[in-house]
Please model this.
Amino acid sequence: MQSGWPRTLLRYLLIVIAAFIGLSVLFVLIFRFVPVFGSMVMVERKVSSWLQGDNLVIEQTWTPWSRLSDNAKLAVLAGEDQRFPEHWGFDVAQIKRSLTTWSDGGSLRGASTLSQQTARNLFLWTGRSWIRKGLEAWFTLLMEALWPKQRILEVYLNIAEWDTGVFGLEAAAQRYFGTSAASLTPAQASRLAAILPNPRGWSASQPSAHVQQRAAWIQRQMRNLGGTAFLRRLQ
Model:
């Protein structure tokens, strides 16, 4: 009897792993085609507010690719992941640079691509752990294999956090500039991209000196990339 327990546990473990793989592939395939009206980060923020006795209102409106400003698409690529059209989910060159800086005594900087950020925001939770990093890598590989680059950026722009309770480009454009996601100017788009590293601490409408400097840098990068013609590389 006891000798059969390891085999039984192994069988159940294999069943759980197979179910996880099947369900994760299914969900990634579904989200390739259907609008994404929520994310695990939105759920986490909502639950956290309940636990604190608040009732956070989530602002998010799904906006298709054709109604997302090309200026915003380019600004986010310029600020977050300029090699997005070329890599397969992981920026190996940036990872090597970060490790070199760390080995030389510097701080270990993040090297997350837009694909990794989209996987993390959509399917996982905030915080840091090796388990989450492993799951992030798995979902990133699935998305890169099953989604075109344009879809990854489209979903990212619709679920990225831009302020407390504000998710997606349409809600961010309305909150900060009183305009639509389709009408953002290069200056407005660069400010929105500039606050992505700290969306609940920085403001696009009342930018600090740091945010203004970062926005100016992003605008220079947008020009260096060749303007919105750079977006053709996603097709």
Observations:
- Residues 35-234 form a domain with the Penicillin binding protein transpeptidase fold fold (CATH 1.10.3810.10).
- DSSP finds ten helices and two strands in the chain.
- The beta strands are 161-163, 166-167.
- The longest helix spans residues 5-33.
